[in-house]
Design a protein that fits this description.
The structure holds two protein chains of two kinds.
Chain A (H helix, E strand, L loop, with lengths): L1 H21 L1 H26 L10 H18 L8 H6 L4 H4 L5 H8 L3 H21 L6 H27 L1 H4 L3 H8 L14 H10 L7 H7 L7 H28 L6
Helix pairs in contact in A: 2-3, 2-7, 3-7, 3-8, 3-12, 8-12, 8-13
Chain B lengths: L1 H12 L1 H29 L5 E2 L2 E2 H18 L4 H11 L3 H5 L5 H28 L10 H27 L8 H14 L11 H8 L8 H8 L4 H30 L8
Antiparallel strand pairs in B: 1-2
The chains are: A mainly alpha, B mainly alpha.
Chain lengths: 264, 264
């Protein structure tokens, strides 16, 4: 089973590569686009810190590192890019073609349109940025913290996107869900900023309702040794994850039974 | 000219389309502004003013920026429209009509501009009751600011028209378009008011036309630009408008000759 899906994933990657390489001009522009995305956030912090000495207890190198970690999370989250257009596919009856294929429907939905190569590029550039900052500013890190940070980041991205998926699956019942989804996940913009600047109530929302903090803040503070992993935090996260995974499976299965496409 | 004015009327009558955009905006803007509010509240805890901007100035800058974005940003669709008209051969339809294509495209965007401002100011009135910010407005500043925003829209239209017209030479321009969005984001004052930029970045921004898309119109409305400086900036903006429209006409006339539509 694993071998079969790995092979499929490899094929999707090849298709994605060919799609990008078809237009050489476009391929170069994709790289430029990536560099721009990083530059914005760095320009933001650089400009801000040219006016104030530090942003709370965050210095420029730490904030740059924070940015790198956020982008690693974003590149991993690219796997779930297919959720973006899923409401449209459901409403248009386009799910039929995935249902009749002899592969897992969700797998096919997620990977058909995703630009895997773009997200791999993003991952590589993010890692290069992190390594450069660590070396350039002589930031002390330890291997265990890096490992914990990575585990929280990967798992956080997975859970965050499952939650995004749950809201997306509501399209099986209500049709166009994009505006409502934007309302819920508009808070994701806050992932670029350390959680510590927000009031307590917002912090709770960003940790346990829309878990944005798990895809940026917590991995960063653990990576930078600004905070340690506490048992109650881990337990809460496990319980939260279990609930999200259960709801994800439930809404997907119920949604599929409700799905119908008319026409001939 | 009558036919182009008629286009504005048609676009204005597509009110339902704009009302849907407005609902989407109403949903997203409060969250974006809330995040901005908390960031700057945190920053201004340690400083009374940054580059002549108080906390109230800063929050109202972003607040007004969102309104101007709702009026001007839709113009960005121009690159996609030109790209798809050329690639799919739909340009034939326009070339065979007594219309000048660049002008046709521009007049269809004026509807967005008018509706965007109307929606933005309704939003300003409602949201201003919730977030405690003060904006002192005068009739003259409103008029000059709207005029500057209109010039800003022309500049934005010309930029995206250039990118769209590149389809005559290269097949895919969509990521280049995304990169143009990125350049505009940095240099038009969407990330920060340009006055806050560090030296080198400010020099670049102040010598390019991008600042006239958002930064200058918002600064006029905020009263940051006044007296002779205001009129000097409007004059420079007008010179950019004339120059860029000239280049647009040139690009169109050269590219147009390369166009061929195949099929039957």
């Amino acid at each position: 089973m694993v071998k079969y899906y790995s092979k499929l994933l490899y094929r999707f990657m090849i298709i994605s590569w060919h799609k990008i390489k078809t237009f050489n001009f476009e391929f170069v522009m994709t790289l430029v686009h990536l560099i721009f995305n990083f530059s914005f956030v760095l320009i933001f912090w650089y400009t801000l810190l040219s006016h104030i000495q530090s942003f709370g207890d965050w210095s420029f190198p730490e904030l740059a590192l924070y940015t790198g970690i956020t982008f690693v999370g974003e590149s991993i989250g690219g796997i779930f890019f297919g959720f973006r257009d899923l409401p449209y596919t459901i409403v248009q009856g386009g799910l039929d073609k995935f249902l009749v294929r002899p592969i897992n429907t969700l797998f096919a939905v997620l990977f058909e349109r995703v630009s895997i190569i773009y997200f791999i590029e993003e991952l590589i550039v993010s890692i290069v940025l992190i390594v450069t900052i660590v070396l350039r500013y002589d930031i002390s890190i330890n291997a265990m913290n890096v490992l914990y940070s990575l585990i929280i980041l990967v798992w956080g991205v997975f859970i965050y996107n499952c939650l995004y998926g749950i809201v997306t699956f509501l399209a099986f019942w209500v049709g166009q869900i994009e505006v409502f989804r934007s309302l819920i996940f508009g808070l994701a913009d806050s992932k670029q900023y350390p959680l510590s600047i927000f009031p307590e109530k917002i912090k709770l929302v960003l940790t346990y309702i829309i878990p944005v903090a798990f895809i940026s803040y917590y991995p960063a503070v653990i990576f930078l040794n600004k905070d340690s992993l506490k048992l109650d935090f881990v337990l809460k996260f496990i319980v939260f994850s279990a609930i999200v995974l259960y709801l994800f499976k439930l809404t997907w299965n119920m949604g599929l039974t409700r799905y119908e496409a008319n026409g001939g | 000219m009558k036919k182009y004015l008629r286009l504005i009327w048609i676009e204005l009558r597509k009110g339902k389309e704009y009302s849907l955009n407005f609902v989407g905006q109403l949903v997203n803007l409060p969250l974006q502004l809330l995040i901005i509010y908390f960031i700057w509240k945190f920053v201004f805890q340690s400083k009374a003013a940054i580059a002549n901007y108080t906390f109230n100035d800063m929050v109202s800058y972003y607040f007004l920026l969102k309104i101007f974005e709702s009026a001007i940003m839709p113009v960005g669709i121009t690159a996609y429209e030109v790209w798809s008209d050329i690639n799919q051969g739909r340009l034939n339809l326009y070339l065979s009509k007594p219309l000048y294509y660049p002008l046709y495209g521009f007049f269809t965007k004026i509807g967005y501009f008018i509706w965007g401002f109307a929606a933005g100011f309704i939003f300003l009135s409602v949201f201003g009751l919730i977030i405690p910010i003060t904006i002192k407005l005068s009739v003259l500043r409103i008029v000059l600011s709207v005029l500057s925003a209109f010039f800003g829209m022309v500049i934005m239209y010309a930029l995206f028209f250039y990118v769209g017209s590149l389809t005559f030479w290269v097949e895919n321009i969509l990521t280049l378009r995304d990169n143009l969005w990125n350049v505009i984001r940095v240099l038009s004052g969407q990330i920060f008011p340009i006055a806050l930029f560090p030296g080198f970045l400010r020099v670049i921004a102040e010598n390019l036309p991008f600042q006239y898309i958002y930064y200058v119109p918002v600064s006029i409305l905020q009263g940051k630009l006044s007296g002779s400086l205001l009129y000097a900036e409007l004059g420079k903006q007008f010179v950019w408008v004339v120059g860029m429209v000239g280049v647009m006409v040139l690009v169109w006339s050269v590219g147009n000759k390369k166009y061929s539509a195949q099929g039957g």
